[in-house]
Specification:
This protein has 350 residues and is an alpha/beta fold. Helix content is 36%, strand content 14%. It folds into 2 domains: 7-254, Aspartate Aminotransferase, domain 2; 257-348, Alpha-Beta Complex (Aspartate Aminotransferase, domain 1). Bound molecules: pyridoxal-5'-phosphate.
Length: 350
């Protein structure tokens, strides 16, 4: 089965009608020839950063295209996935009219961006084992539902959803399905990037913030049909990815072996942490994790969260989320950090 969609028809009329800003640097395509750049009112004296970045990040996209086995025209880069989530809503969802569909418990920024953009959120909670309720998701989507957000592995639960369930949603829904693969490197397997040729309504998000170790650089990637990428290019801020961040990504790609061994270490540490946490009595449940964090259920999350803070350890308390009562979400740290966490739990266990 395939799904091709009319991206023009999905795009907000205001966005279709507008003219994109043409930045000085977007009118000139870099070539090997040495050019005298007098087009952007920059300071001509070299600081390493006195020139604007390439607005289209051409070189970086070419490099990423090879890594991800897609065409550069399928890639959009932004200031973290957060920017991409917001731009998708700006491009395709009409404020006060359209809605997005979420599958709680889920990543909080979808709701925040929806609120910012004046969009209602339809919620179809996960079912037992934190799994997608595929039939209900398709049943709840209306004419006004423009986008469904599915993070896999999911945050805060940590589990991956079966790809066949996500594909059933992609195949059955006429709007955009945003498959957020922020934690993909921690449980490599099929990626929705492989569906782009057949399903034009898929947008895949990945990030340099998690396994790639560049949360401070703020670099997010969207992979989608070139028509979708075209709309995002039209509405983005001209220089939305700065020179330093692009350089940091090149450096990290040059050191892919280091990233891979860090991921292996984190996974090994996750195993150690889970085996130690199992022995802590105040921990009632450990949910299966395909990511670099674990969700645990404790006797009293508010109390344990505060006690950990007192001991200098910060975890996340997602207990106000659907089906997450008395849970804590814990990122996998270094061996020493994880050991400190276990030691802290042991003192609380007495
Ligand atoms: C599912 C998911 N998507 C996206 C992000 C944010 O990624 P970025 O740092 O690229 O904005 C997070 C961060 O916690 C996340 O859990």
């Amino acid at each position: 089965m395939k799904r091709s969609i009319n991206i023009d028809a999905l795009t907000r009329p205001t966005i279709q009608a507008m003219q994109a800003y043409r930045s000085a640097r977007s009118e000139f395509v870099a070539s090997d020839r040495e050019m005298i750049l007098l087009d952007a009112n920059e300071n001509p004296f070299e600081t390493g950063l006195n020139r604007y970045p390439d607005p289209m990040q051409t070189e970086l996209k070419e490099r990423l295209a090879k890594v991800k086995a897609v065409e550069p025209s399928h890639i959009f880069l932004g200031n973290g996935s957060d920017e991409l989530i917001n731009l998708l809503m700006v491009a395709f969802c009409e404020p006060k009219e359209d809605e997005i569909l979420l599958v709680p418990p889920t990543f909080g920024m979808y709701q925040v961006s929806a609120n910012l953009n004046g969009l209602a959120c339809v919620e179809v909670p996960l079912i037992s084992g934190f799994q997608l309720n595929v039939s209900e998701i398709l049943a709840q989507a209306t004419d006004r539902t423009k986008m469904i957000f599915i993070p896999t592995p999911n945050n805060p639960t940590g589990n991956r959803f079966p790809m066949k369930n996500i594909k059933a949603i992609v195949a059955g829904f006429p709007g955009l399905v945003v498959v957020d693969e922020a934690y993909a490197e921690f449980s490599p397997g099929e990626t929705a990037i492989d569906w782009l040729a057949d399903y034009h309504n898929v947008v895949v998000l990945q990030t340099f913030s998690k396994a790639q170790g560049l949360a401070g650089a703020r670099v997010g990637m969207a992979f989608a049909h070139p028509d979708i990428i075209g709309v995002l290019n039209k509405i983005k801020a001209p220089y939305n990815l700065n020179v330093l961040s692009q350089q940091a990504v090149f450096d990290r790609l040059d050191n892919a072996d280091t990233v891979a061994s860090e991921v292996q270490l984190m996974l090994k540490e996750k195993g150690v942490l889970v085996s130690k946490i199992q022995q802590i009595r105040l921990v009632k449940e450990i949910f299966p994790s395909d990511a670099n964090f674990i969700l645990i259920r404790v006797d009293d999350s508010q109390l344990r969260y505060k006690q950990l803070i007192d001991k200098g350890i910060v975890v996340r308390n997602p207990s106000n989320q659907y089906a997450c009562e008395n849970t804590l979400r814990i990122s996998i740290g270094t061996a020493a950090q994880n050991k400190a966490l276990i030691a802290a739990f042991k003192t609380m266990d007495q």
